[in-house]
Design goal:
With about 120 residues, the chain is of the alpha+beta class. The strands form two sheets. It has a two-stranded antiparallel sheet with strand order 1-4. It has two domains: about 55 residues; about 60 residues, Chaperone, DNAj Protein, Chain A (Ribbon), CATH 2.10.230. About 5% of the residues are buried. The chain is built from one helix and four strands. The structure holds zinc ion (2 copies). InterPro entries: HSP_DnaJ_Cys-rich_dom_sf. Keywords: Membrane, Transmembrane, Transmembrane helix.
Length: about 120
Amino acid sequence: MEFGSGGRDAGDRARRQLQAAGRAAAYLGGGFLLLSAASSVAVRSLRSLSDANQRKFAAPCGACEGKGTYACRLCRGSSTIEWSPLHDPVFVNPCLCPTCDGTRVQRCLNCLGKGYA
Ligand SMILES: [Zn+2]
Ligand SMILES: [Zn+2]
């Protein structure tokens, strides 16, 4: 009867199983990474697809006629506003329009600049 050899075998087997489990975990981890990368790509392509569908089938925005922007309502397209601190017509200062920052257009609030609702 040799007790020692049997014990050593069991230990070897346990070590081998541990190594196999480690390899499996590494494999699964890699697979998970691959899967998450693939799913994020799929989500991105799905999102762009639905965006294209929306663009194709959605009615153009009525507020901006599908342009996504309209002439600034505050400065009425002049890019500056006449601002007078004293309500005195002599001291009227032309100021850069705070709504459009001088771009003369503002983003459509109805469609958020997308041009379709
Ligand atoms: Zn403006
Ligand atoms: Zn719009």
